[in-house]
Structure formats: structure tokens, C-alpha cells
Amino acid sequence: MIALSVRTERFTLASPLRASWGELREREVLIVRLDFPDGLWGEGEAAPLEPYDGVSLGSVRAALDAYASVLGGLEPTADVLAACREVADLPQALAGVDLALWDHASRRTGTPLARLIDPRAVGAVPVNATVGVADPAAAAAAAATAAREGFRCVKVKVGLSGDAARLAAVRAAVGPEVGIRVDANGAWRTTAEALERLRELEPVGLELCEEPVHGIEGLRAVQAGTKVPIAMDETHAPGAGGVRAVCLKITRGGITGVLADARAARAAGADVYLASTFDGPRGIAAAVHTAAALRVTRSCGLATGALAARAGVIEVPQAVGLA
Description:
single chain; alpha/beta; Enolase-like, domain 1; TIM Barrel; seven-stranded parallel sheet; three-stranded antiparallel sheet; 11 helices; 12 strands; 22% strand
């Protein structure tokens, strides 16, 4: 039998994040622990963010409680994820179980997680810095600091007032060699609005724009109307095609979910990269290991404090497990 238990962890962001969906100052995540008959254990993390993904912490906790009832009567050789999915097919809850399973497998085999996923995993993952402040001067200062620290890409939240002025200030602060990525979180309501806003922002030089609008057809239409590479994020349809990149999240089904999404996106001709929803340490570690195993070359949005970034990269942990 497998015992599942859950506890809560809270942490405060180093600085508040301002996005089109609201402001984030504090995170609360659920730590999922699986205890196995072999005496070993694994811990994962379930990290919904309701303002962003519409999934409440309460609904995830309820799903995990249901999983605990099922796993208590399950043999260790059974397909744990499939058994949980039959009870509640909630990706944010399944992610916590999935990470715990990978954590256990890494500990049991004594293999660092990235190499367990793929022996060809790289040793470091490129990452971007995120600028989530609305004031142009503050945004420029944050971007300049990131550039001095060695980041070769900064991501700026847009869909707020004064986007063009803020982006111009950021470009002036970082110079021509640092990539600027923008993230609208679907704030632009129509294709026409998105294309108009991108025309305003394009002169600063954009590496890509994440989720200018929500929905597959809207994203395809925006990509067809602009030279700026468009990345799909909240619109979770990695194999749909029509965009240049897909942003993958550990919260959507864990490592197993990301690997499946990456295969679908690449088959559709899109680049992939990973980002967090300001997850806790286990979620960030899982994403770094997965990005290394996928040999991602685009900068990933994982420099959120759980693992130290130096010169624009995060070194992949070589210890076993996620903690």
C-alpha cells in the first residue's frame, strides 16, 4: 500500500509581481508525500494559482484527499497516476503525485532526476529574469540589474497601462544584446487589438510574446499577422500548431505531463521552454531537471529564487530527489 499525506507551505515573494490578472505577493502550495512499502518516500508539490489558472487550492486538496483513499488500497506495482486520474482528472493535483513518484524513483535508483528522465540531459538551463513592475523607471532598474547579473533575456509583463514606455525604458537599460520577451497573459481581447499592441512594441525588438490572446484560433491569427514569434501558454493545446513556441508548466500534470506536452509541441513544429507560476522549491527543481532532460535552448522562466541563477543559467542539481 502507498500512504499519501499533504501539508501546506507558504512563502513570500522577494518582490511583488504585477500582471494583467492581478498582483502576487505570497504563495501557498501543497506538499504531497508518498510513503512506500520499501521504506522510501517521495515528495512532490501541487501549486495551483487561482487568479492565473482558475484552480483553487481547496479543489486540489479535495482531489488529493480522494487520491489518498485510493492509494491506500493500491499495490505498489499498479499505475498510480492512472488510478488517481480515474478519481479526479485535475492536472494541478496530479502534478503533486507525479513529482512525488519521480522523487521516489530518483532516491530509489540513486540517479539525479534529469539523468533519470534522459541520460543525455544537459548540465545547465538558460533562464530569464522577470520584470513585473508597471513603473517604467522601476522596470528599467530591475532589467538593468538583471543584465549586470548576466541574464541574457528579460521577460516583461504587458497588458498594463504604459506598455510602450515601459518596454522602451527596459531596452534602453539593457542595451541591444539582451533579449526582451513580453507576456500579455491573454490581456488583449481580440486579434486586432493584439496586433495593434505588438506593432507599438515591436520597435524595441522582441524575442517573443507569450499568450497575447486566449484560444487556439486567436493565437494562430495573431501569429499569422506578425513577425514576432508567438508563444502559447495559458491556452493549453501544445500539439495544435500555428505558433512558434509553447511555454510548459510543471503544474499541468507534473514531469510526465510536461514530457507529453513537449513531444506534442515539437511534433507540431514549435520550440518549447519551461516556466513556473512562482512555484515552491520542489516545483522549480522539477522544472529545471525536466528542461535539462529536454535540452531546452530558449531561456526558461525559472529564476524565481528557489535555485540560484548565475550568469543567466541554473546549474542542474546533481543530488538525488527534488529536495
